[in-house]
Amino acid sequence: MQIMARTSAVPAFLACLVLLALVLFNAGLVHAAEGGDVDFLSDDFYEEEPETISVYDPLEPMNRAIFTFNDRAYFWVLKPVAKGYAYVLPWEIRGCVNNFFNNLQEPVRFVNCLLQARFSDAGRVLARFLINSTGGVFGLADPATRDLDIPPVEASLGETLGRWGVGDGFYLVMPLFGSTTLRDFSGTVVDALAMTPYYSWSDDFVVNAGIYAEKEVNKISLHLGEYEDLKELSFDPYVSLRNAYFQYRRRMRDEDVFFEGE
After folding, report:
1. What sections of 74-156 are H helices per DSSP?
2. Which residues, in sequence order, are bridge partners of residue 171?
3. Nearest CA-CA partner of 50 in 236, 252, 228, 262
């Protein structure tokens, strides 16, 4: 009975979050995000005919096997679930949910901006967090971008390590997580641990896993079709996805959103 009660907290929390977004959206108080969720499969980062990119990939056989697993998991499980989710919830509400989770990550971005000596960006991140947490109704909306022209800032520990001179390491494909490098994945783990005190909704692992799963399904539902487009244009989807990931990182670096420690 106690386990059932804890587990029921997952749909209860999600229902409250979605209901709040629905009420506020219908009242005209919030809107879907204009930014803040960078996706390296989008047209902004992926070139249909990319130049040759040199990638250190000594674990390619293992990475390809995990890539195949992720591909099957996407088409057999994640995509059908995300499509059903998108059918039930309109895009605007899913955008609000995405805003909410993105806003929770701003404190980690703020710390990483400070560690990278990007003090102007740190100020922007702090301003976004305060504005969106209040005027954006707990982060469901993004008035910082829409009304005040304060766009999202990307900053992670992987970037911080790069600025400190730590190299990429080798390319990795993680189960369900996807493309990364040894440095970036290590940074992601530490970032996630840093968020644990205020990102955990319960002491129960099942509850937290359920909420995380909803967050990811919501994110996938906002990007349906992008992975399919990349595969359709690719002779070798594994290489194309790997190149798209490094194109994204290079683009971020060249636009001075990233760092020089490549």
Report:
1. 79-88, 91-104, 106-115, 119-134, 143-146
2. 181
3. 236
Kindly report the number of other CB atoms within 10 A of residue 117's CB atom.
11
The answer on pLDDT for 167 being more than 60 is yes
Residue 7 binned pLDDT confidence (cut-offs 50, 70, 90): very low
State whether the Cα torsion 235-236-237-242 is positive or negative.
Answer: negative
Q: What is the distance between the alpha carbons of residues 192 and 262, in angstroms, rounded to a whole number?
A: 23
DSSP codes joined into one string, 194-228: HHHHHH---S-HHHHHHHHHHHHHHHHHTSTTHHH
Spatial CA neighbour of 67 closest among 245, 187, 241 = 241
Phi-psi region of 56 (alpha: psi -120 to 50; beta: other; left: phi over 0): beta
DSSP-based three-state secondary structure for 260: coil
pTM of the model: 0.77
Chain mean position to CA 65: 23
Q: What is the pLDDT of residue 72?
A: 95
The pLDDT tens digits for 105-146 are: 999 999 999 999 999 999 999 999 999 999 999 999 999 999
